[in-house]
Amino acid sequence: MQIKLEVSFDTTRRDLMLLCECGEIIDGCTFKDYIKTSANPSTPTIGHQKCGNIFNFVDGKMPKRYSSKIELKSIAMRFAEKNKMSIETIESLLIEVDRMKSSGNLSDGEILTAAIKKCCKDRRY
Q1: Residues 5, 113 contacting (CB under 8 angstroms)
Q2: Rounded distance, CA 46 to CA 13, Å?
Q3: pTM higher than 0.70 for the full model?
């Protein structure tokens, strides 16, 4: 299972952010692979080096992950640390993640994407 926070077929883009089913935000820890899809019997794609998960972007088979609040906040903290966010931004990010997780049935990717956009809309982290 993988969660797509933002999709791009250009893996060299810096704004490409994938959340793997292992709970890690994938940032450069990928390998190239070829898989059979509905479009082609040998479609190029990427996989996560840490857990070996291979992503299928063509068929849109992106299962949704629903973590606990603690797991989701720890993923948000890893994202914040990796992007060197200020303490104030981290506070608002964690509060927003907590609020959105409590408010409904959104998937992890939807919560993280919306929280990051809301907390960082005026700055680049």
Answers
A1: yes
A2: 14
A3: no
Instruction: List b or e across 85-97, with b for residues whose CB sees 16 or more CB atoms inside 10 angstroms.
Output: beeebbebbbebb
Distance CA 123, CA 21 (A): 28
To which H or E segment does residue 3 belong? strand 2-6
- Is the CB of residue 80 less than 8 Å from the CB of residue 61? no
Tens of pLDDT, residue by residue over 62-94, are: 657 778 899 899 988 988 888 888 899 999 999
User: What pLDDT, in 10s, does the model give residues 43-55?
Assistant: 888 888 888 788 7
Mean pLDDT of the chain: 77
Taking alpha carbons only, the member of 79, 92, 81, 87 closest to residue 120 is 92
Instruction: Please state, in angstroms and rounded to a whole number, the distance separating the CA atoms of residues 75 and 101.
Output: 13
- Whether the CB-CB separation of 112 and 79 falls below 8 Å is answered with yes
Query: Which residue, among 30, 71, 74, has the nearest Cα to 50 in the 3D structure?
Result: 30
